[in-house]
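To assess whether ligand presence alters the predicted conformation, the chain was also submitted together with nicotinamide-adenine-dinucleotide. Input:
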Amino acid sequence: MRTQLFIGGRWVDADGGATFGVTDPATGELVAEVADATPADAVAAVDAAAEAQPRWAATAPRTRSEILRACWQILVDHTDELAELIVRENGKTLADARGEVAYAAEFFRWNAEEAVRILGTIGVSPSGANRMIVHHPPVGVVVMVTPWNFPAAMITRKLAPALAAGCAAVVKPAPDTPLTALRVAELLAEAGVPDGVVNLVPTSNAGPVVDAAVDRTPVRMLSFTGSTATGRLLLRRAADRVLKCAMELGGNAPFIVFADADLDAAVEGAMVAKMRHSAQTCTAANRFFVEEPVLEDFGARLAEAMASLRVGSGFDEGVQCGPLINEAAVTKVDELVASAVAGGARPLTGGSRLDRPGHFFAPTVLEGVAADADITRHEIFGPVAPLIPFTDTEAVIAAANDTEAGLMGYVFTGDLGRGLAVAERIEAGMIGLNRGVASDPAAPFGGMKQSGLGREGAHEGVLEFCETQYIATTW
Ligand code: NAD
């Protein structure tokens, strides 16, 4: 297991030799001690990236593409090993972890195809005086800061398009899940990514380390995935150097069930939208708006499905819901549920933490949740489905949009025309229409409002890591 920093193609201890512990959220046990990067290490990583940057940018797109394709292959070939690392440090089930590795790897295959298709335009200026050539060079060195909930995919969703565009990167993974990141970096190097193009600096001291990195002159972009609160802070930080920013932030997804929906499909979609990756996704359904005539039926079916989930260590056969990432996460979910119940909500199933080692909360369905309850204002990031009744389409659209988040929304209805009309009015970057999952490397992932800036995936994803240069010339 790799536990050192990866800088300029070499494995090195942190400056001063400090380490920090990584624990298994299912047991609370220590899994490994990992080198704890300092600001000096961040500077060294940026310098290594800056040195690699011009050569990588000048590498033929076809060569970059073939290296990216090899990255896809090597990650796929190591699915079992990577999935086990993910379960060990993140806690999600082995099936979800395998799914994450496939998703993470796919960004390399998709972007291998994009690397050779970063096209510009050429035209005649309206006056006819000159030609207008527009092309897309790489933005330069990128600092990437990622969360723990997808220890592999949140990194590859940035790295693959950045590498396709010709950028070198310094990655600061989440302190809870650095082991997967380190192994991914090692595999990418094995697949042919040149020294210095990918550098990795795990740390328990995010603020100063990220500050030191973004202060370095060669850094031209900050790509962040995490909470909206941290995103705001980093946007302010990036303003000092007017860095290009890509922000993938928190969500508060509405899940709207109309009375004409296929309820079996709606419950199945709800389970996926809520419980995928042990209920800790940014796209997780956070508020379930259910039309009155089907409220009781939908609630009963959802409660039955939630109650039947097997909760436990992600490694155990048949487990469908793993632990939350840490104790603070359990406390937060517990407080949100307690406050909803104090406000009149009633658990149809679950409602409390589980009395066992590790960080477990019972899959929970709450009925009678007030539309303005605290639990509807916060990203729950846990296995709790609050049900809110509605009777009027205009009112439910207004309620769904009554949040500063705008990442994901879900609409279930038997009338596709109505579904599309409602979907278009939900202020979210992504909508699942009669589907509980939408993520796809070939689609633009990202949020409106305070859920972010920019998109990852699709052709948009690679353009995020490009500049636009216009050359005026006459011939
Ligand atoms: P977080 O904001 O606490 O941490 C994210 C990363 O930022 C970590 O690497 C952390 O070490 C770093 N960080 C924290 N404080 C920092 C600081 N002051 N300066 C620099 N870096 C700092 O988020 P989290 O708890 O790791 O992740 C959960 C959040 O991420 C949720 O809000 C979730 O919705 C969001 N998320 C969003 C997406 C998306 O694509 N929109 C995807 C996954 C997760």
